[in-house]
């Protein structure tokens, strides 16, 4: 399986990079994993609704250009469906079983994702009703993907 994480913005925090690199290394035994960072749009502190929509549209274009046409797309959204670790593992297992070998997870920028990206999504996934920094979500997401593969293989890790 090919797992791609498309995320808006550049990861700056060293401790997050180290954690992500560790899980990416662990995942190599199960899947090919790549992380694509698309540029975030420069935006002033205060914006009108139209300006926010334009920022999301531009970031959305960059996200969509990074997604293969045959990929199964999972967007991370506050209003998405909440799944437990076992349910996410089952979903990834089902995708592999039914020939969906390319799975793309999308983490939007600070304003969220555009409507075009939402329309391209096959599954809107929520980790919580709370808001998290999108850089931190990369680490949380890649850990959950790793956990999913361990669950699906019946290997110890999941508790």
Question: Care to describe what's here?
Answer:
The chain is of the alpha/beta class. The protein has one domain (about 1-150): SPOUT methyltransferase, trefoil knot domain (Alpha/beta knot, 3-Layer(aba) Sandwich), CATH 3.40.1280.10. Helices cover about 45% and strands about 20% of the residues. The chain contains 5 helices and 5 strands, in the order E-H-E-H-E-H-E-H-E-H. The chain has a 5-stranded parallel beta sheet with strand order 2-1-4-3-5. Helix 1 (about 15-25) packs parallel to helix 5. The two termini are about 25 Å apart.
Number of self-contained structural domains = 1
> Quick check: average pLDDT?
94
- Main β-sheet, in a few words? 5 strands, parallel
- Tell me what portion of residues adopts beta-strand conformation: 15-25%
Over all CA atoms, what is the radius of gyration?
A: 15 Å
> What characteristic shape results from the CA principal axes?
globular
Q: Assign a percent range to the helix content.
A: 40-55%
Name of the top-level CATH class: Alpha Beta
CATH superfamily: SPOUT methyltransferase, trefoil knot domain
The N- and C-terminal alpha carbons lie at a distance of 24 Å
